[in-house]
Batch of 3 targets.
Target 1
Amino acid sequence: MSALADAIRQGRPRTDLGGSSPFSGLRRRHARTVDVVAQSVAATAPAGVLLIHPGALYERSGSFAFLDIAITITLVVGVALVIGMFARRVASTGSLYTFAARGLGAHVGLVAGSALGIGYLAIAMNTLSSGSSRIAQLAMGGAEPPGWLTVLLMLVFGAVIAVVIARGLRMSTRMLLVIESIAVLTVLGLSIAALSVTRWDLGLLVPDPSHASIDAIMTGVAFALIGFVGFESGVALGPETRRPFAAVPRAILVSVGATGIVMLVGTAAQLSIVAEQADEASLATVTGLSWLVDLIVAVSFLACALAMTNAATRLAFAMSREGLLPEVFGRVSRRGVPAIGGLALAAFVFAVPGLIYALGGSRQELRVVTSPGSTIGFVLAYALMCLAAPVFLARIGELTVRATVLAAVPLAGLLAVLGFYIAATASANLAGVLWALAILGAVVGAGAVRLARHPGLAARVGVHDWPIDADCLDTAERR
Amino acid sequence: MSRVDAEPGARLPEKGLGLALEILEQVARRDEGSTAADIARAVGASRATVYRIVNSLVRDEYLVRRADFSGFLLGARVLELAAVVDAHRRPPYAPVVEALRTETGEAVHLFGFHSAGLTILDEDPAHPLSDPATLLGDPTRSAIGHLWLIGHHDRDAPRAPRWRTRPSAEDLRAIAEAYTVRGYTEQAAMLAPDRGCLAVPVRNERAETIGALTLSTSISRLSVAARHVHALRGGADELTRLEPLSGW
């Protein structure tokens, strides 16, 4: 009798792997591919990005704006393929942090995880305050809203985010899906309407060689890339997803593909408007529906804040289960959700911009730090993951030439983008870059101290949803 | 798997399901867990092919990676392959039924009973059932159906075919009385105009009827076919002694 047939006939679960996973308590294996897509797409917030970015991108890169978007999409697809290499093998709420730690060890993992966490929280703060102040402005009928109103709305939306996260994963992802779908469809509708008004003038999509400069293109790509970050956040839902090794890689590629197409179409529309009316170029002025445009941006950004906080909660959950973060972030509610961690992070996402407003500051002061913080955080985390991929594959004996090339190409692109971005931003906003790097350094330093104080901790970094007794079949030979 | 059994040195085709099953077999053999490279060496396929198949087996949860990624374990989902394993296994009743076919030279079938109808366990490949739909739908039209009506059946088989007609009390009494006289049941031309059939019960150790052996032949030979009833009863007794029958 063959060993396989024997094992099947015995049909006994194993007894040597332990009865609970490091993520025990978390509600496992109930979400579906669509939930992962919803999380990733909402974190990308294509509708909001589309309505704000193309004009700003044109200011930066001139006629290379469309090319920038195309290059960025290529880069993002490259990163998504590397994510796939890990996501086919590892399911963890720590997502890219766990991946980097698995390949390059606890300390490099710590850098990647801190960078990613800072990225999530920075974008969440940005989008929460931006969405709230836009709604406040709409409520004031277009006048500059008072600071207290914006803070009040941030408090309300922050509370909504906390409640939705605590209610459970599928509640938040399904809400995100509906909101973002409506927003994207409206933006695409507006874009097509605008293109008809401007008689489909696509002249600006063709790069003008006189604008060509590697600097302009690279900073343009860095700027466009920030419009895509968050697409990886669905990876954090792996342990909560059914058949994660199939669903997560597929969902990430679907998210990137869908967002990419929407961005290309929307950007083309916006740029053609810029060509038509160079001085007052926006969908809002062309269609005369500026309130609708503002509303879509606000809603899309608030959904983004929810998705980013959701992702940060999952990241903190993994770090807490390893012992890096306090135990409270790893506690699960009756519904199997890290609810208290979500509440704490939502409170933090509200508190920082709230404090800045309270001290008489505005959204701009916040963005001085959060904007470089998020770009550096995400690009660094992506780059470290790309570096970790071939090392990880070699360690488990599955490295191929194809995988090495697939990881090296986006790595080179990301490092170039990061270098150009830091160089360009250092001259325009040196304080912001230094603040962002200082915060990253402080977080990594605190983590490193904790790793040094607790010798067993480093070995535990990189926990994932590994198999337990009930997941496996015992083989006859062992008895 | 059965081919691995039968010819230990033989290789399955180097792709698709064959290779996937051989990879599962390799994992089952090595408990300490083998890496993808070990598996590739053991099955003699290219590493790229094995990585691809291993990852698709992991994706579908037939294989599970160890926590430290040092090797693979059989996933619980492999249990769903039980049907494949059993398809390759010759059921223990097969030799008994085949011996009866050789001895009588007629079509011999084996059926299992469950609470709501019949299950075909072993259909004679040389003489297939003439009208299985009617046979499985109406207990009054077949010898085997008559046996079912007489016996007591509490075995549950949720996905098995169910009777579509209910006989009257009078039919039932007639069937039972005929069985008491003969000790077996008989049917002529009720399923196919030129065929007839007789059936003897198969019982478990507690003497409950759990199935039946049937012999079908042409109408003209039905009467003399009664001489095979003794052989059929012998076969039914042998089946009683086979322990795995309870697994129907």
Target 2
Amino acid sequence: MHKLQLINVSKSFGLHAVLRNLSFEIFSNELFIILGSSGCGKTTLLLGILGLLQFDSGQVIIDGIDVTNLSPGERNIGYVPQNYALFPNHTVFENIAFGLRLRKISKHIMQTRIRQIIDDFGLQGLEYHFPSQLSGGQMQRVALARALIIEPSLLLLDEPVSALDIETRQKIKAELKDLQKKLHITMVYITHDQQETLELADRFGILNNGKIEQFGSPDEVFYKPKTLFVARFLNTENMLKGKILHKFGKKVTIQTNDIILKTYTSLELSEGDQVTICIRPGAIHLSTHHIQPGKNVFVGTIDSIHPIGRDLEIKVLVTPIEVLKTRISRIVAKELKLTHGMPVNLSIDEAFVHLIPVK
Amino acid sequence: MGKLYLKVVNKTFEGTNYFFSFVLVTFMFLIIGSLFFTTTPSAFFQQISSRVILVSIIVTFGSSFIASLIVFVFSVPTAYVLSRKTFWGKRILETVVVDLPLSFPPGVDGLILLLLLSRTGILGKLLGHFHIYVPYTFAAVVLAKLFVSIPFMISFVREAFDRVDKNIENVAYTLGASPFQIFYKLTFPLSIWGVLKGLIMALSKSLGEIGATLILAGGLTSSTGTMSVLIYFATQKGEMDKAIALAIILEFLTFILLTIIKFFFKESTHKIHA
């Protein structure tokens, strides 16, 4: 069932169109991420869903009810902003109680629910602390407890971990995912961080220029970008220009400047069509041993080795002008004793050679 | 050679800074302190126990207090509108209620008010129908102080409202709070130090106001003779002991108010933003 539906929503500020006829659905109990760079309209979209900003046109539907003309309080959406926005003049207890007090819930029920959520979020002993006395992680848990205690239809989070240090960020991300699964709550999460998206999202959408470029699961979008923008935005390391040499059913052979690749595609392509070939480094297997010649097997020499986090990025020259990038762990690289100029063999899994038609 | 040159330039620069700062500080101390050296304790106490001075203290405090209360009532909603709302003519409103009164010399403020409230003025004629005549009365003193101090108060309160994180209000809206509930539960309590600071600045401005008061209220009667106005007349008549006694009281009060702002509000601001 759809938890949230946006139908043809648009918003402009003066002559600048921020959202253009945007439509999408979010399913119950999923963690949906809206990914986009700064200024792509993420915040406008979020404020519009919350009712803090009126869309120029379109509808917002929550649980099948049109909430387009309802006030933010009537929409029953929990909201956790980027900086958590805890009420600095209220204690942790009062922050959590804020929404319940406005609902005129009996004191006894309110106390019970607050105690319960304080226990669930591990905030015992902090009830009478003020926000300025809390750590980043504690602040976030209070913000979540404050948003969830009103039993919202869905929870909107605006870059909730971006203000935290790496260690706390990892911990909070895991907690968020666990919480979402445990409470079966629909979460809409906004971020510019693709790593976070790939780690957390059940599904995500990439927002660009007021429109969603592509929806899908992390694997789907990461390995099979539909547009050049998505491929570039998700830093597809190997993007080669080529043209269709042969096509037989779903099987295609593509010619780049110097190499020939084989793959499968369900795209409507004909021989001679120009395409962009996207290959993730993870799909390219590097070996120092001889590999039997076959489909998508290349011999090359190492052009450069760069550390990327815990891995090394290896650039391999497969022809004088064609470079393929792959990644291997530092330990494996050490075992293989990789050095600049060393001859290596590359093999690419056909299933991970993805094509984007050039329009 | 280059290093020595740089060293000399830096030393000269530092020395010049210290020299000018020292001259200025000495000059300021001389000005402030001169009041205390030009009178004697007995002359001071004799003056402040005179009826004229006591009445002027009451008039000054009474009018400043009433003006500050009115300023508070009008400034808070105006500052809230300026801080939170976007509407056509907002810039004009800002110019009219803040920038213009701030940039006019107080004498000009007084003249504008006098022209407006005199028997032939627009407001004066209107009030005349109800047999109300404002110029040269206690109400004129209050009005003059109000007119001069209100832009300060609006500026301070607006700044305090601006500093409240909009996300705090947004979250409260999503939790079901009304704009009024958000204002009295969050925005106003979170801006309270800025509001109080503005109120003290308005009070301080009111206490020392002379230009507008002199023109609109005259200051020749007991109900309009504020301390600043009395200092002016006393110096004109050569009654220096009287002028100095009044000046010392005003200086002392201003010092107290500034101390409150400098230390108390600085600490409080740190606590809020910690």
Target 3
Amino acid sequence: MTPLLEVIDLTKHFGGLAANSRVSFCVERGQLTGLIGPNGAGKTTLFNCITGAHAPTSGRVVFEGRDIAGLPAHQVARLGLARTFQVYAAVGDLTALEYVMVGAFARHSGRGAARTAAQALLERFNLGRFAATLLAELPVPAQKLVTMAAAVATAPKLLLLDEVAAGLNPGESAQMMEVIRHVHQDMGITVILIEHILELVMKLCQQVLVLDYGQLIAQGPPEAIAAHPEVIRAYLGASYVGPTAAGGQV
Amino acid sequence: MEALRAAFDFSDFPRSDKIVAGLLAVAFLLFPLVPTSSFAMSTMIQFLMFSIYGMGWNTIGGYGGQVDLGKAQYVGIGAYTTMVMLLRWDTPFWVSMPVGLLLSVAWSFCIGYPLFKLKGHYFAIATIATSLVLKDIFEVWPLVGAAKGLTLPTNRFKSPDFVHLVFREDEYYYYILLGFFFVGILVINWFRSSRLGFQLRAIKDSEEVARSLGINVHLAKIKTYALATAFVSVAGSFHAVYVKNIEPEDTMSLSISILIALMAMLGGAGSLWGPIIGAGVLIPMKSYLKEWLGASAGIAGVDLILYAGLIMFISAWEPRGIWGIVEKIRRRRRL
């Protein structure tokens, strides 16, 4: 069976800067993949290239056997590839329910059906009490959950989450992880998440990708990644790569 | 069918709104029965007409956040289509109005396609430019009477003529326009809860996020722009048979475009009642100022000073206009 997503030699240049260079990896159906790397490693750019926000300079993005590289973002979304954004400040006048309905309208043309679907999702995400509140007036963790619910409302096969736990306290991020687990396991959506809190990635993910300076320096199961010399070099510096860690196999 | 139900569904408004709206609707219906001056009558007609322009503007400018300062070009297309067809072929209003609407919408697609590649101020400036260029063309085009404009001879049709919409008494115009006004409210009420309406509100929030939720941002804007255009064009056609004398200067000038946008913003962009409230405040103010100050009002630029003041008020104090203040107070009371 073909993988759900296959990224082949993906390269993205901004002027002279190579934000991604020759990145290749696969994501299987049902997998939960973590994407980590120091700041500026090109993680968000990679998401942007996969979802059509940027057209890659070269390389292919194969989703369900179809090359989607360079396709406009809204068409990618309709194929079943949804995402959330790292930086997002609600300014509009949409309530939480209406915001999720925007996502639901991608699958339902009638407003009754969209409303029902959105309401059900809010309940699932434990946000029912916020339905009538303006998104801009919600606390940050709830805002992040609502934007995630809107992405899930488009009924994606693959969901890309860009630092959904950034800025949350440990309690809130644990709650967020619970929701991600629910989306992944109970709703059967394949997930790739960018996350800085490595502990969460290691606990949650079945596969971890590590980017550094635009290049994929390691990929594999969490245990192997934790011991990988390149990863330690990227995060801690070369002097921490000890003789014991150097033996880590991927 | 669901669209029709949505158009009549006002259930998300508090009861006080529905009572006020209902009372106002009755008052509007009864207004001509109360003896009033012809001046009050023409002010009411102006108010209804600008409400319809404003409702149209509000779809793309209010819900969608795309500030459009070129609505006057569609007033012109609607008005001139009706007038030209009426003078040349005695075409009934009920035929020329839809023809004008189709021409306006076709034109809106032609300029909407390139214009919506622009954003923010650039879009606003481009809409001004297209509107002024069209006005300049009309000013030298013999078919539409060039700068002199077109005039409907008073004895051409016998009043009351419901086919060509030619009346001597303003009451007839008033009731027909009131009909358009009510239909307009229903259409906007449908729009704001339709898929397209939601898409536009998401676009106003963030285009990047809207795209990620599967919305074709460019297409959604073009579609909504066409809807906005339809409103303006219909009222423009009405304007032609109502004033019976149209010139590029008074149908397509920049000040009309600005007045349309300003009214909707003053009342509350992105709300159902906003444009109506805005027209209700600005139009009587404008008419009575002109009445009191006579011709000197135009020379002194009193109305322009007034607009400038309102723009400052809106941008500095309450970007969501009068309706925004009402909503703010309500929310505070609920908390």
